[in-house]
Amino acid sequence: MTASRRPNAPPVYLDYQATTPCDPRVVEAMLPYFTEKFGNPGSLTHAYGREAAAAVEQARCQLAELIGAEPREIVFTSGATESNNTAVKGAAHFHRQFGKDHIVTLATEHKCVLESARALAEEGFRVTYVPVGRDGLVDLDRLEAAISDQTSVVSVMAAHNEIGVIQPLKEISALAHAKGALFHSDAAQAVGKMPFDVEEIGLDLASISGHKIYGPKGVGALYLRRRPRARITPLIDGGGQERAMRSGTLPVPLIVGLGRAAAIAQSEMEGETRRLLALRARLLNGLKSRFPALVLNGHAEKRLPGNLNLSFPGIKALDLIASCPGLALSTGSACTAAEVEPSYVLKALGLGEDIAGSSLRIGIGRFTTATEIDFAVEAVAAALNRLRSGPGVTSASGGTT
Amino acid sequence: MTQGPVYLDWNATAPLRPEARAAMDAALGSCGNASSVHRAGRAARRIIEQARTRVAALAGVSPEQVVMTSGGTEANALALGGFPARRLIVSAIEHDSVLENAPGASRIRVTREGVADLASLETQLARDKSPALISLMLANNETGAVQPVAEAAELAHARGALIHCDAIQAAGKLPLDLRSLGCDLLTLSAHKLGGPQGVGALILAAGIEIVPLFRGGGQERGRRAGTENLAGIAGFGAACAAASSCLADHIRVARLRDLAEARLKEIAPDAVVFAEDAPRLSNTLCIAMPGVPASTQVMALDLAGIMVSAGSACSSGKVRRSHVLEAMDAPETLSECAIRISLGWSTTESQIDRLTEAWGALYARCRASAA
Prior knowledge:
The complex is a heterodimer of chains A (401) and B (371). Chain A has 401 residues and is of the alpha/beta class.
C-alpha cells in the first residue's frame, strides 16, 4: 500500500471542522445570482427583485426541509456567530421583562456563545456554566439543578467543534421546557452531518452555518420556533427584512448556496456518514498501530463521523503540526488557532496542561479520500518518529523523560 | 433596437462588476478559514488582507481601520450601538438601518431640498451637555442629495460629539476621504458599488473603539466575531478598486441622468424633481408625475421591461409614504407619485430612450383619461 503524492501537491486538508470547501455544485448554483440574477429581493416592484426573492424562498424551503422546520421559521443571518449572538442575547433581553435574568450554558461551548454570555453577565444577567464529564457529555443531573424558573434560555451545542461530541439534545430540551426556559442549540457542526430534526429534538432556537456544510462563508441561519413562538429581541434593526428579526439586504447568492448545500447534505447524508466512519476508523487504527499510547478525546461513539481529537502523550501538538507540512491540521477551534494556549475545551474535560498541549483535532469530510488518509497516517507516523528521536523529548511509551 | 430589460434601480443593488466576480471565483476555489494557521488558512488570510487594503484605499484610511461586516445594515447597527453612553442625534432622512437602530434619537431637520439643516444640528447639540453620537449620511438613497458632512463634523467635534456617516450610496459615486470628511465612523456596503450582497464595512477613525455587536472568536481585532466571508470580502475589495479607478465614468452617468431628467420634464411640464437644487449624486433622479401613483408608474414601466422603484428597496414591497420626502415637507399627494430612477456604469443612452418612451406613453394615457 503506497501513500505517495505528487511533489508540491497542496497539503491534505484535515481541518473540516474549521471550514469546508464550497461544493462545486454549490458554486454553480450561486454563480448566476452574482451576475445576471443580481436583484435585491426587497425590490418586489420589478422582475429582478422578484426573481431574487423567489430564489431566497426556495433556499429557505431547502434548509427548512433539512431540519424538519417550516420555511417561515428560518431567519437568514451572516453566519453562526451572528445566529448564536442573536439567540442567546436576544432570548435573555426579551425575557428580562418577565423577571428572567438567568441563562445556562456549558463550559465547553463555542467562543461566540461564551462571549455572548459574558456580555450578558456584564449587563447584570446571571450565567451558569455547567461542566462536562471526561467524555465531553453534559451531566444531566447537574444541568437540571442549574435550570430554574428564572432561566430564560439554555444553550447547548449539538455537536462539538473540537471534540465532535453529540449531546443528548432531547433530554436537555425536556429539562429546559420543564422550567419554562427556551432551548437553543449551536448546531453549526451538526446540521447536515447527522439526522437533526427540530421537532423531534424539541428545539426553540438553533444556529446554522453555511461554510461548515460545504456552502459559502458569510451566511448562516437561525431557526426560530413559531408554535409555541420563541420570542427574542433582534440584534440588528433596519429595513425589516426576515420578518423584522434580521434587517439588511439579503445576500441572495450566499443564501442560494446555503440552500443548495442543505439539499445536497440531506440527499447524501446516509452514504456519506458510512463512508466517513470507514475512513475515520482507517485513520484511527493506522495511527494507533504506529503510536499505541494515543488517546481519543471525547466520547468514542457519540460523536460526529468526521471528527477525531487525539492526544499524543509526550509530543507537543504544535511541533507535530510543524513536522507535517503536507497536512493541514489544527489543535482546536480556528478562532483561537493562533493562540499557543491549549484548548479550554480539553481542560474542561479534565485533561492536564501537558496532555491538552499534545492534542490534535483532525476533521475529515466530503472530499477526503482513502489515499489521503493513508498519506496522513504515514506523514504523522514519520513525524512522530522524528520528534521522539530528537533531543529532550519523550520515550515511546509516552511518559515524559 | 434590443428590447431586453432595462435596469434603472442601481440604488437598490448594483450588478456585480466583472473584477469582483473574478476575485470571488478565485476565492471560492480556496477552502481555508482565515484564522487557521495552516497553509490553506494563511492563503485565506492573504485574500482578506489584500481586500482590506483595497477597501481602505477607497476611503483613504489604513487597513487596520476597516472592520468587515455582513453589510451596511450591520455596520450601521454596530456604529450606533457602539457607544452606549452617548445620546444619539440622527438626520430625519437617514436610511431605516440607521433610524431603527437609533431608538429615541433626536432628529436633525432637513430643508425642502432634502439637505440637513446645520442650524437644527446646532440646536440639538446645544440642548444637552451630555456627549452625543451624530449620524448623517453622505448622500441620500432616495433623492441623491449630498449632505454637509464635513461641516456637521466640525460642529460635532466642537461640542465633544462623535459623528458617524452612512456613505453606502455615495461610495464609488463620489470621491471619499475619511479625514477630509472629519468623520469618526463611516459605513460602506459592497453591493451598492458593484460588489456582492452580504458584505460591508465599518471604518473607524484612528483612536476610535466600539462595543462589539457580535462576540465570539475575536476576528476583526475583536470588533466583529465570526468566520470571515472570504469570497464576499474578496469581491468587495475588487469592487472598491474598480469603483475608485472609474470615478470619472460618473461624468458620463451624470450626462445620462440629466438627459433623462430634461426629457421627462419636457414630456410632463408639471413633473417635480426632488432635491433638484441640492448637490446630488450623479446617478439619481427622484421625480413625481403628479396625479399618477408611484405604484402605477412602477408597474407600467415594469411591463415595458424597465425597472425602477418607488423608494427604498427594503420597504418597496409595501406601500408606505417615504419618510425622506415627508421630512422635505413634500405634500403627500405629490410624494405618493414619486419614483426613483437610478443609473450605473453600464447604463446606456438607448436605455434612457426606452425609459422616456414608456414614461411618456403612460403620461399621455393618464392625462387623456383625466381629460
